[in-house]
């Protein structure tokens, strides 16, 4: 039987070389060297890296590409960003949110990013953004998995109507329960919100992804409550704490207690290095805190860690392109994760780790998995991060949905080659 697609001579993230990937019916049928078969399309990977698709486990698609509306964030702080978003919300329309989100999804697909978990604000009584992103979710389903989190941006208890609005959003089809305990009026209200939201998730059989301790305050310790509630309610494997930047400022003794609690409860951790190091430390003179959470220490405790993009051209972040290799690249630097093993982890943290947190079915590079993968102009995952490698081909369910020409600089240097191979030698 003719294959739909055959990729020849690929390198895999685990180091296997010379691999052929046979695709039939939207799934990987076989993977091994030297597959002999007819195929509708054949791609010669030429010793380049084939990876499972990139996954962004933390994003805000309702705000993306809204930079400058209605004004710019002058202080660069989280709180001015939230205030700016509050100014923008009354001006939003369903059509504008959908148009910006679809454009971002186009950008994402071109970068090999085929799964996104997006938080969506539920503090607008109209639930305009919820309806808009549910519309986007339906439209992009053929080529991108979009998972939505009901997110009370202005506080679950602090914002009037947020408690009921969040339930309404879940009733409409939003799949994950979110929260922002550090933005409540008091630490006690924050802890109460964590408890209530986890109980709601347990009652409905849903996952939890909570903005947690996104602050420079070392006494913001809602992740402790989240770990406790996860264990109390039997939510192991379904809960993630996002940002966790207060951990950067906590004393080591308290962290030595906290991390085992997280590991025991099975709470995953999501850092957003591009945004965390821009938003945090804004009130510092020198030395300035980087703000990113303690990923190496959490890894050492066996805590599942992943990296998110968080924002692209919105009230909180004026840059970004949907490139998860840029996210991994920043994490390598700011997290001092420069050993080869740690750099390999950073690649996993934008691919298989977030896929696990999202619970994506059929994800991976193995027979029987969905035929979703990316051909990168790189020789291995570290090469991919170093170069922020060109996505030569993006495949969804066995169909090539995006292609980019290889980066091959032309040189005019006496005695030197006419073109440059930007990748490392095998």
Automatic annotation (TrEMBL):
Q: Which domain of life is it from?
A: Bacteria
Keyword annotations of the record: Hydrolase, Metal-binding
Hydrolase as a keyword of this entry, yes or no, is yes
| GO molecular function per UniProt | cytosine deaminase activity; isoguanine deaminase activity; metal ion binding
UniProt key word Hydrolase: yes
User: In this protein, which residues make up the domain named Amidohydrolase?
Assistant: 41-401
Q: Name one GO biological process term.
A: cytosine catabolic process
Q: Which NCBIfam families match?
A: PRK07572.1
User: Which protein are we looking at?
Assistant: Amidohydrolase family protein
Organism of derivation: Enterovirga aerilata
